[in-house]
Amino acid sequence: MSIEVGNKVSGTVSGITNFGAFIDLGDRKTGLVHISEVSDSFIKDIKDVLKVGETVTVKVMSIGDDGKIGLSIRRAVDKPIETASNTQEKTSSYQGRREGGAPRSGGYQNQRSNRGSKNVEPKKDDFDSLMSSFLKDSDDRLTTLKRSTEGKRGGRGGRRN
User: Fold this and answer.
1) Could you report the per-residue pLDDT of 50-98, keeping only the tens digit for each?
2) Global pTM?
């Protein structure tokens, strides 16, 4: 089978490092599966998940000009497509947030925002969704911080006497 971007191929784990695993694809070709591409959940030690000599199915993610092959185990696994209701449940948890990312506090605003909400058990999200929500909150906070410091003299900090 030819090794092209997007193909799923079978290979053998030939080496394990702290940042990922090298996969022997046959025909004298070796690719790297980064530790973040091994599983949807957090992996502290890759040696707990993969062993040298183990046969795995990987998806070819990239082939560099220098011949380096980027692979993914977690993307080689077919997952069910998310339905619209699942997507809406994930986004509904952000309704009670201000632009700065902090929850609303007290008074009429807070009561109004909780009117139609349900008591939903928090779900254990996968790493990608947790990371994307963290990045969104972080960007919002940085934007708010920049906006509040731009107009002040000197560009940073409070006013000086």
Assistant:
1) 999 999 999 999 998 888 999 999 988 876 655 444 544 554 444 444 4
2) 0.49
Tokens of 141: 């906070």
Q: Does residue 43 contact residue 49 with C-beta atoms inside 8 Å?
A: yes
- How many Å apart are CA 42 and CA 77, to the nearest integer? 17
End-to-end Cα, the chain, rounded Å: 73
The tokens for 138 are: 């972080």
Tokens of 25: 């694809």
What separation in angstroms does the CA of 91 have from each of 41, 84, 122, 134, 143? Answer: 20, 11, 13, 13, 21
Q: Round to whole Å and give the CA distance between 135 and 142.
A: 10
